[in-house]
Each structure stands twice: as structure tokens, then as C-alpha cells.
Amino acid sequence: MVSKSVLEEKLNLVTERMLSLKSNGMKEKYPISLIDIQCWEWPQGVGLFGLYKYYRMSERQDILDFLINWYDRHLKAGIPERNVNTTSPMLTLTYLYERTHNELYLEFIKDWADWIMKDKKLIRTGDGCFQHMITGDPNDNEILIDTLFMTVLFLARAGRILNRSDYMEEAGYQILSHIKYLLNKQEGLFCHGFNFARNDNYGGILWGRGNCWYTIVVMELIQESEIDGALKRFLLNVYENQVKALKRYADKETGLWHTVINDESSYIELSASSAFLNGIMMGVRLGILNRTEFQGLIEKAMDGLLTYIAEDGTVLGVSYGTPIGMTSDFYKEIPCCPMTYGRALMNLAHQEAMDPFWQ
Predict the structure, then answer these.
(1) Which of the two ends of the chain, N or C, has the fewest CB atoms closer than 10 A to its terminal CB?
(2) pTM, whole model, 2 decimals?
């Protein structure tokens, strides 16, 4: 396993670059920048989550200060639009509230959770699933696996903080419903999306980053939330089948994963690869997975991750925001560029590798 000193050096390098990430003139196709760390959207939400996890491990005051300043500025200025993706930054606010006990944070958490549940302004589609509404587009009749991280994990956390068992139960229902419609049972992996009007999974593509949202969510839920035994058992069974499939499809040279998991002609994608490795390592550490069975893959994949960190801390090979496509070629054509979520997920893998269990 890579030494703790090397991991810490890379972790700090990647973090420093993330704290100042800008779009640098790149023309983006979405109403809100997915690159600039100072914007409120889903990539930044993932980035903030990674930063808070690193703060909790390192107790670096500058990271905590950055997070507090980021949220205080946005809460004062106002949020552009509420939807599935802009709910993503709310996840880290739940952790920040527990750390600071800032009542303004709690009020905002309650207001946003009520927007989802009490007011039901987050659109429901078939079977009451959260429709994957995004900034400027309701995505009619559409659900995505991404919603589990972007919205459902926040709802579970908010339910615990607010002592709302109905909110936590809804989070469980949403996960089960997304599994029902998105899981490819033959592969043990998830399709990117499902459309209730068409009654299909579009092209049925087994997209890498989409799958990694489930890996992260289930590992976070079993550690951070109280879920009943039957639900926990079911979610972990799905997780175990997923990681067995990931082991089968891991790139033989690098131990990493392709942007279309079962298409080795598609490029290696580092946000998904980092999250998969983090989730597999956590599963081993928690006693869910057999260490002997996954040790070789873990060591190869960790070595592979390090080759994708540039000297300036840029994480290479991270695909830009990706809508649902009908073919593998669609996903192969998504460009790679520096993204906050790529850095955050890379950092999560490094943080896990620094745990005493692995050193």
C-alpha cells in the first residue's frame, strides 16, 4: 500500500487546487458553472463534501473557514434555483451544522427538507420517484441514479437532524425505487436513467460515475444513519453484487474503471474510479468484503490513481457533466476537464487509504 506520507502530500496538493478552481474561460453549456468552486451546483456540492471529510480527518482550520465562508456568502446572496442537483451542497451543510451549531444553518436545512417533503416542490414522477429536475430543465418523467447522492442522502441526514422519521423513511423508499428501475440484474450494475413515459432505460448504458453514486451513498448511510436491519441487508446485498461486477470489469493494467464500465474501448474515468476504490476499501475495512479477495485490486487501483494526479494537483481524466446517452459512443465523446467532484472523489480514496487499517 502507498505510504501515508505520499498520500498526504497528494491529498494536500489536490485540495489546494480545488480551493481555487475556476472555469478559466471554458465555455460551459449549463446555466450555472459546473467548474467554478464558488458556484452553487452539484459538482461543487460533491467538492464540499470531500473538503469536509478532509477537514474532519485533518482538523485543518483553513478548510473549515473556507466552508463556513462559502455557505455564509451563498445563504446571504440567495440560491438561484432549487432542484435535485442544487440540493447537493445541502449535504455538507448538515455536517457543518453539527460542527458549528449555527441556527441559521439548521433553519435552512429544515426549509430545504420541507421544500422536498412538506411542500413537494421537488417533482415526483412514476411510483412517486424524485424526478431528476435540474437547473432550467424538469427532465419530465426521468429518474437518474445520480439523485441518490444529490438529494436522497441529504434527506436522510436532514431527517436524522430534525428527528423526522418520515423523511428518513422517504429516503429509504427512494433508494429502493431507484434500485427497482435502474439496476441491471444480469450485471449487478446500474443503468444511468429510466423514463416512465418511454418505460425504458434509454440505451441501458452502465455508466461509471452514475454507478459510483450508489457506492458512496450506501457506505455513508450504513455509517451515518440508523437504518433498519432489512433495508441495510438489502442495500448491502446490492452493493456486494456491484463491487463483484466492478472487480470483473476493472482495467487489467491500471485496476481502474472505464467511463462505460463494460466497454474497455471507452476511456478510463477518474471520478468514478476514485469513488469505486474508496467504496471497496471502506467495505473491506468495515468487514463487509473479504480483504484477501480485493487486496490485489485495491493495491493496483491505488497505484493507478496516483498516475492521474498532475504536478500542480490537477486530477486528470475526469469527464464533464453528462446527460443520459443512448450509446456507449455518446459517453466516449464527453470531454475530460478539471472538475471539483474529480478532486473530491480522489481525495476520498486517499483519505480512506490513510486510515490505520491500511497503513
Answers:
(1) C
(2) 0.96
